[in-house]
Amino acid sequence: MTEIPSDNWLSLAEAIIVQATKDYRTALRSLHFYPESTEQLCQKRELEAFFRSSWFQTLCDLDGKQLIWMLKNEVRGKHK
Q1: Is residue 2 scored above 70 in pLDDT?
Q2: How far is Cα 58 from Cα 51, in angstroms, rounded to an integer?
């Protein structure tokens, strides 16, 4: 079996985190305009669970709860 360089794993982990933050921002923005959207509410909850998960901690050294707080404040700031 060929060993995969650690740079590839790090790039994959980074891409997962970046995509999750983009998806979370999108869900928050959509909920701002459509607060009854069950699809976006479900997406938001799933991503929050991911940010708090051990899998997230395996992928990066970020504090998931703090990331959620920062992203919520970022999106709120753009809707004022």
Answers
A1: no
A2: 11
**Exposure b/e, 10-44, CB count within 10 A at least 16 = b:** eeeeeeebeebbeebbebbebbeeeeeeeebeebb
d(C-alpha 63, C-alpha 59), whole Å: 11
User: What is the secondary structure of the chain as a DSSP string?
Assistant: -PPPPHHHHHHHHHHHHHHHHHHHHHHHHHHHH-TT-HHHHHHHHHHHHHHTSHHHHHH-S--HHHHHHHHHHHHHHHT-
Query: What pTM does this model have?
Result: 0.88
6-33 vs 38-51: helix crossing angle, rounded to 10: 140
